[in-house]
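note to self — DONT lose this again. spent like an hour looking for the file last time. sequence + predicted structure for the chain T wanted, 315 res
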Amino acid sequence: MTTPTTRSTDPTIRDSTVLVTGGAGFIGSHLVRTLEGANEIRVLDDFSTGRRARLPDDVAVFEGDVRSQQLLRSATSDVDYVFHAAGLVDVAESVERPVESHDVNSLATVKLLDAAREADARVVVSSSAAVYGHPESLPVHESDEKTPQSPYGVDKLAMDHYTRLAADLYGVDAVSLRYFNVYGRTPEGGVGGGVVRIFFSQARSGDPITVQGDGSQERDFVHVRDVVRANLLAATTEVSGRAYNVGTGESTSIATLARTVKQCTGSNSPVVHESERLGDVDRSRADVSRAASELGFEPTVTVEGGIERLAEETL
């Protein structure tokens, strides 16, 4: 494992061959568009949830299942960097389909890391704050206890361990980023990001804005622009085998988020409450001190400013 060092706060990747798995998805497509032009970009995606229209014309597309070892070897051949953003990302779906969640998330990551080892590529793995489950205290640090409450969270924790093991055992340059609640504008002009996307859709259609539970659940909402920057910092650092929180260090209740979206969109939709979702956690807020000291990461977008700008950008 490489000794952590503080990196530049203005990371760049140029003149490299880069693979983005899940590159037609929300986060992956932002990575592609940030890196294209200065690099040769490859995307591996089955387009089950991602959209081909999000990809620039000059991107090399490897269409298929991220679990395919043959496809992974082809896509990673002679690449310099891999951003692994593919996978099943819905907590509720993982509860309904735990075997598929394990295969697409955990097993696929093992195969990807093995292919990256053969290609001598550096890997940044997209993990999740779901690894922590119900934290005993906030903010949650990377070293805190991890008791995931869903198959998705268990899979992401396994991905973190495999990433560390690939670095320690096989010498793969790899780190994992534990995203908190990512949101922002999609390349085609829509809204991306879990509950933020849902609330915007409901508010703009005039449907009730549905809050699961009493709305007191707290989340750390981080803008996709900051997530992309964290990925670039992780790709260009000398650190390997580490996991990093990617959030803002601030928490917002779901009830407050609903009111903010309603206000920023000028919606007349009522806010209503439904039953709680299985596998959800009550509170979540990132301690980003490790990412700050070792990667040079600092969040730049507040949730209030981000939601307001998102409402303006997606009129």
